[in-house]
Amino acid sequence: MHALAHLWLPILVSAAIVFVLSAVSHMLAPWRRTEFHHVPETAAVQAALRGLPPGLYLFPAAEDPRERMTAAWMEKWAAGPSGWLTLVPGGPISMVRNLVLSFLVYLAVSVLAAYAAGHALGWGAHYRAVFRVVGTITFLAYATGTSFQSIWYARPWRVWLADAFDALVFGLFTAGVFGWLWPR
Questions:
Q1: Whose CA is closest to 113, among 14, 180, 27?
Q2: Is 37 helix (H, G, I), strand (E, B) or coil?
Q3: Can you tell me the mean pLDDT for 1-23?
Q4: CA–CA separation, 114 and 108 (whole Å)
Q5: In whole angstroms, what is the distance from residue 141 CA to residue 110 CA?
Q6: Which of 36, 133, 149, 161 is most buried, by the most CB atoms less than 10 A from its CB?
Q7: pLDDT per residue over 109-152, tens digit each?
Q8: Phi-psi category of 152—alpha, beta or left, where left has phi over 0 and alpha has psi -120 to 50?
Q9: Considering only CA atoms, which of 120, 110, 104, 124 is closest in space to residue 11?
Q10: How far apart are CA 173 and CA 165, in angstroms?
């Protein structure tokens, strides 16, 4: 199978289903409600950070990256608090922008799964073969990316486990849609 055009229906349907499943997970799953902690003295923290442009920050920071592993810097890091900080633009959160971008990612994962499965399986593949290949690809796509946040940036592993559970559900539903709508 060399034409993704023949797989447009499972691509769109699976992306739409994952979009809905993701929204349900993030709005209703009780474990998602405790992912973020509240900072005490929020007003003081906001005042201290006001004026910094949106971006990624490291603290304690060293002007020269070569200073980051010196004994003095390591002492500052160990004394804490230490960490990574993401600042976003001020103003209201653009839910439309974020939802559109999320859907585009789900769509891209489905397109890549369709591409790989199409080349691996060809026309008329059995439901279980399509399910197995597409499910594996989409689980890997959804589950592995956030693991590096836990490895390198101390994001709690329980948050990654919630992401991995979502990835499993997304992969199973995507695989089911592709198996059901696979060209015969």
A1: 14
A2: coil
A3: 89
A4: 10
A5: 10
A6: 133
A7: 999 999 999 999 988 899 999 999 999 999 999 999 889 999 99
A8: alpha
A9: 110
A10: 12
Phi, psi of 91 (to 5 degrees): 100, 180
What was the pLDDT predicted at 1?
47
DSSP code, position 113: H
**Is the distance from CB of 144 to CB of 169 less than 8 angstroms?**
no
How would you class 164 by CB atoms within 10 Å of its CB: exposed for 0-12, middle for 13-18, buried for 19 or more? Answer: middle
**Residue reference for tokens 């059995």:** 126
CA distances from 51 to 85, 90, 92 (A): 15, 10, 17
Taking the C-alpha atoms of residue 54 and residue 9, their distance in angstroms, rounded to an integer, is: 39
* Dihedral pair phi/psi, residue 56, rounded to 5°: -100, 135
- To which residue do tokens 């990624």 refer? 56
